Amino acid sequence: MCVGKSGSVTGYAARWATHNVERRTAIVQAAVELLEESPAGTELSVRAVAERAGVAKSVLYRQFGGKDELERRMRSHIVDELGALLTSKLDLSTGSVRSIISRTVQVLADWMIEHPRWDEFLRGGPTFDGDESLDAVSELKLRMARRSEAILASIADALDVDPQAFEPVPYAVVTMVEATMSTWIRQDAPERPRSRIVSDLTDLTVYILDGAARSVGVVADPDEEFTAVLQSVAKSSE
């Protein structure tokens, strides 16, 4: 291959790789948007996705091995977006334990209500890079449980208490919240409003965390600013 003054073979390959990544991203985004607009239970049309993305169907198939790969990448995209949103609400630098939990549960409730087609789609299969035995919702729950586990472990370390007391908490809480919200959303006429569901799940999570903390001698006010709680508990243990 001849290489002109405009750049090397390596540079050309890098630009082409970047172009392909951008094209795949645009196609996935178009597919996700189209999915949300489609009626519940309808099949996603590859032709419709290609038209929405502004590419030929043959181009779409060059970027993806088939519809299965496209759908896996769509699930990866949705899981990444929702995971990032939930993680942002788990920011411990602002708010009390109760408010941190409440805003995280709230954003999940809002997401599930506002994006029913995405929620339904995630339950239909794995992501692109995920465990083949897990659907995308299960992968997301595992991801959030691990994130919460890391947070609790760092808190236990800061307070110099046994982290094992908190080990069962993350997955139990994540599973409880997701299952409760999923059941509530699928009711034809829910008796409890969204605010009550969020409040109840927040209270239950606080009770669980409080019980785990008390088992290692930590008693704290869940309504006090969390950073202040940490400072107070750490000072009292000196």
From TrEMBL:
Residue ranges the record marks as coiled coil: none
This protein's UniProt keywords: DNA-binding
Domain of life: Bacteria
GO function terms (MF aspect): DNA-binding transcription factor activity; transcription cis-regulatory region binding
InterPro entries in the record: Homeodomain-like_sf, HTH-type_TetR-like_transc_reg, HTH_TetR
UniProt cross-references to PROSITE patterns, sorted A to Z: HTH_TETR_2
PANTHER family associated with the record: HTH-TYPE TRANSCRIPTIONAL REGULATOR RUTR, TRANSCRIPTIONAL REGULATORY PROTEIN (PROBABLY ASNC-FAMILY)-RELATED
Name recorded for this polypeptide: DNA-binding transcriptional regulator, AcrR family
Organism, scientific name: Rhodococcus triatomae
